[in-house]
Amino acid sequence: MTGTATSAGQPAGTVPPASEGLTQKLVSWAAGLRYDDIPLHVRDRAKDLLIDAVACALAADDAEEMAQIAALAAHLGSNGISTVIGEPGGRPAAVATLLNGYRITALTSCDVYAPARFHVTPEVVPPALAIAERDRRSGRDLLVALVAGFELATRIAAAMDYASLRPRGWHTPGVVGPLGGAAAAGLLLGLDERGLRHALGIAASQSSGTWASWGTPTVKFHQARAALAALMGATLASTGFAASDSVLEHPDGGLLTTYAGGGRPERATDGLGEAWELEQISLRPWPGATPVQPVITGLFTLLRQGSLPTTAPGAIRISVNPVVHEQHARFVHPQGTFEAMLSVHYAAAAIALWGRLGFVEFQPRAYADERLATVIDRVIEVTPDPKLGPLQCRVVVETADGTRVQDVAAPLGNPDNPASRAVLAAKFTACATGSLGDRAAQVLDMLGTLEAVADVAALCDLLRPGGAVGQGQ
Description:
Blueprint: H1 22-32, H2 40-58, H3 66-76, H4 93-105, H5 121-134, H6 139-160, H7 162-165, H8 172-188, H9 193-204, H10 218-237, H11 255-260, H12 266-269, H13 293-305, E1 316-320, H14 322-328, H15 337-341, H16 344-354, H17 364-367, H18 370-378, E2 380-384, E3 393-399, E4 402-408, H19 421-436, H20 439-448, H21 456-462
Parallel strand pairs: 1-2
Antiparallel strand pairs: 1-3, 3-4
Helix pairs in contact: 1-9, 2-4, 2-6, 2-19, 3-4, 4-5, 4-10, 5-6, 5-8, 5-10, 5-21, 6-8, 8-9, 8-10, 9-10, 13-16, 16-18, 19-20
């Protein structure tokens, strides 16, 4: 880079050597990560994230736009050896990665790193799974790669500083996701530190995605495209293809500089290898947008205490953060599955009317139910409250027996209100049984003991419905 001379005789804006930069520090840590370096509780959390991602992908056929994504995939290629979770047969690796990325996020039920509104697994799991399956890597290898990918992704997202990133309109999964996925895939490809730097650089050159797409399926496509960008970045770097050595901190186009005005780079390395940021990733026990999860948590807590009213005007009053209210208020009467999953009103009315909230309650026959519209209009009130944080709410229920109040400080599945492995297993079973049948329990056991899996290809075979036989058999 060319610049004017400083008083020290160095060009202004000169990039520090790779050995000194933020990108290199993260890459050096990832390249040196070994299974025994990872505490048991971190391994378990990474496996939880994988279990949840696979569960979400297996249920994805209920998403209304999956036919459109399938049409795109057909144009890109149909014959290959890579597994698409929940789909028979094989696809080219790039197509499988794109499809798996979308399937994980299709039903708005996957993980979220709440500090940056960042769904992490759709970008990290698919490229890692494609490489691990193709190269017959072990489950232990895959687990280490996933831990590295999750950790780098969340730390880079923290360094991007959401308070700086969001006002510029950038959507974190599309911007940061490619780097986490590239790190995981790169490790499975055996890249050295230089190769990993370039994998991140190539992936970051494809970073994109803005909030202009909020409320449409395109906001979910950001994640699928980021997974593909990650696969391309790692694969291209494995050929020796060069990229920036300092893609995070470069003063002329580095991610922190360009997307976040410099960000908070210290957040990426503080406590690296000791404090694990991936443990701050939340899981969602129910379908629905992240800011709707506190409301669902509160309503089910009250439901366990007694029935919810479905006729009295204004009997269920919900207070949420003002920004949440503003972003979700236009989905009072949703016209599709995705809109229903973004609607506070809809989730509340469905729980009051049916006493449950699974994927079935977001299908056309559910959101077209006139009784539901009546409950939304007569019973449910949603108002903003500036005293509440984005993952907090208050639910007040008026019944003939009196008033019940439930304050939610953190939704179930959040690190401050964690969901048990039993809750996660129930979600997996509900998502997987339809496509995997009796094999669902076997797959859940293998995912939960991933380090004992000798060949990831054998696991992937079990993720294909109908007993399809892939390269692992």
